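Hi everyone,

Forwarding the result from last night's run.
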Amino acid sequence: MGEVYRARDPRLGRDVAIKILPEAFARDTDRMQRFEDEARILSALNHPNLLAIYDVGAQDGIHYLVSEFLEGQTLRERMSSPPLPQRKVTEYALQIANGLAAAHDKGIVHRDLKPENVFVTREERIKILDFGLAKQAGVSGGQEGDTMTSPVHTAAGAVLGTAGYMSPEQVRGETADARSDIFSFGTLLFEMLTGKRVFKRDTSADTMTAILRDDPPELTDSGVQASPGLERIARRCLEKTLGRRFQSASDLAFAIESLSSSSVTHSLPKQKKYWLPWAALALVLLLVGALVVVFGRRLGARPQAQFLRLTYERGYLANARFAKDGETVLYSAQWNNDPLQVFSVRTEFPQSVKVDLPSSSLLALSSTGDLAVSLNPVFGHNFFSGTIAQAPMAGGSPRALHDQVIAADYLPDGKTLALVRRSNGKVQLEFPAGNVVYETNGYLDYLRISSSGKYLAFLEHPVFDDDRGWVSVIDSSGKHQQLTKEFVAEQGLAWSSAGDEVWFTAADLGTNMQLYGVDLQGKMRSILTAPQRLRILDIAADGRVLLASEQNKTEISGIDPETGKERTGLEWFDGTNLSDISPDGKAILLLEWGGVGGSLYLVAYRKLDGSAPVALGPGANSQFSPDGKTAVAPLLTLPPEIILHPIGTGESRHLSLGDIKSVGYIATRTPVSWFPDGKHLLLIGATSGKAFHTYEMDLEGGKPQPIGPDDWEGITVSQDGKRIAGRRLSGEAAVFNLETQQTQTVPGIARDEVVDRWTGDGQGLLVRTESPVLSRVYRIEVATGKRTLLRELQLSDRAGSVAPIRMLVSADNKTYVHAVRRVLGSLYVAEGLR
């Protein structure tokens, strides 16, 4: 294509390479266009494993392309010495695959991948060179044989590439897509491992015939002790049939990256066995090793854990279980923009396969191979609930069993289920299904049965909308025992392989949960700490552990009423929830439950003009007073309290709740709100052993007084202070009239919709429909149920969005703010944890 010069860029003080199009080529308009097209396409790739393009242009009739200047060797030169160490092979292969993936994502197929076109810089950075035969997919008007840089259309059926590195379809002159580059990659990988060309024959014709007909030789025939993982990857790349290869370079890169957690055997030339001196040295080393082991045990040293990554998609990982063979893992996840689904993956090669089931979340896996799944689960608070159904592990039509199930597990017989489900405003534990042995005003999850079938372990949460809590067990007789202290967050639980401990993940402070173990006597120990959030999902019979590594992030955006422009980044630290929007629509209240929030969390005030947030003090979900000058919040102490934070100067004020032992979050975003006079509070709470009830509380003192019927929970008070909107425990939206003491059902509000507040005219209610991908705010007329849509938000990027989107609208409907919570996780197998 041209002549290449080394040059100096004086402005940036760097060496560059300049490709100049020869004069004869420059007069050819087709070549000229392709020269410029190549520069534009390659500069758009912008990937560290592809040659970087800095500039393209013309001066005095000379057309040029400026690229980065590379110092180092081609891969061919790098392989001229003995075979590369497998550590380097894996490192180079991953970089090549990543570079190909970047090109393929832009529709570029290289079509001439070979050692001469792969460059290794002095910093060991791989650069893929020479896209002279590259083809751009989807270019209108072109023929199949067109390249980005060829001077004329290439006839269909013409062979393009380099013999020995071409794919079978290139040899036959057929369509070459991204999978053709993957075949060529396989030839490179084989050559890096063995130092020999995989299909090399005496002539080019014989070489191309071998590509079409011959299988790659066994690596052991080359005297190479290659890792099984690398050999499997190479052979899959070299499949003759397109459908049997990796289907994308991204999948290929994922497969190579998964090998980084495993040790790699170096390829070494055979040596003569001068074994006597070495035997003596080995004996000495053996004795030293024994002393290290003995003294290491005395000092309490632990073997280092190893981790194997099983998933590589972007999204939320819900649950996972080892199958009986110990090598198959079943898991449920919401990847990218897809719904929650069940997948199967093998530990020897981390490529997931979807199980033939409708949208569902994995609950349990029986010893007989049956799956218990939650069909069309809804993430309502900190857990999923749905209809539990049973299906074969291979998939098929599931058989529905029970509704509103949160968690479940199989007894050792593989047939009988124990489960946790919602019923009549409470959460109950059934052991077995149908036999209620425990119930709570909070919730229970991560139910697991011991191998003996005698004990059920679970996480117990005293507050319905909060994952703070402790580990509990209950035996077959119904005896309940709390094993641990209360943690500020806990998710994930499994019995140890020996069955003598419950392993769980929890946080003392902040969002990063760590792995602990506790025995039935309550003796607790730390097993694994990490700088990221962990969640245990299962333990195999041999002690290997399934762990989720997660990032939990909230994204808050809103409309600044002063400018009318949207502001993003209104969240604060590592755990932010949106609590309320001010009456004038100019500010919001936040709940910070991350590390800075402490065990009682933190209430923060933030204006929508982008100014910094202000910490008000401890408390959970808070609400503005009618004049916007005070924030009220529950304190999740035992027993709970109410706290009033002034917005501005002044001291915070604590209020006792008398006989109320817990505050509730059922069917509401906050358990405490205001009467319009600013002197009374509306509260949802429960006394010992009782269901939640609605209370009115005078800020000047006195015990909270119950109001309304027993089967009703009040949420928001009308502007005249005479009516309270809420829900019956059966789910219907209703209004309670304080003067007549009558309850009126509000038509047109679904059970899964959130009643937010009264409208300014007192004739309607603001009601939210919430899901992880769509949120709408409606005005519902109390008398007629007439519905008017006020705001709508639909996510384009759904990855990891499992909690309902929270959208709050100001009283005048001039501004709004919304919060999206994403939990992004990956699944690992951990070995060596003790």
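Residues 271-301 form one domain.

Cheers,
N.
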